[in-house]
Amino acid sequence: MLSIARLLETELARASRQFPALVLTGPRRAGKTTLLRKLFPKAAYRLLEDPDVIARVRADPRGFLDELKPPAILDEIQNAPELLNYVRTRVDAAPRRHGQWFLTGSQEAPLMQGVSESLAGRAAIFQLLPMSVLETPKVSLLRGGFPEVLAAPRSADTWFRSYVQTYLERDVRAVTGIRDLSTFRRFLALVASRCGQILNKTDIAGPLGVSVPTVAQWLSVLEITGQILLIPPYFENFGKRLIRSPKIYFVDTGLICHLLGIESIQALERSPFLGPVFEAFVAAEIVKMQAGAGRRRELYYFRDQQGLEVDFIVPTGAARVALVEAKATRTVLPRMAEPMNRLASAMKNVRVTKWVVHRTSPSAPAQTSLSPGVAAVDIAGLLAALGKR
Question: What is Dmax (Cα atoms) for the chain?
Answer without folding.
Answer: 67
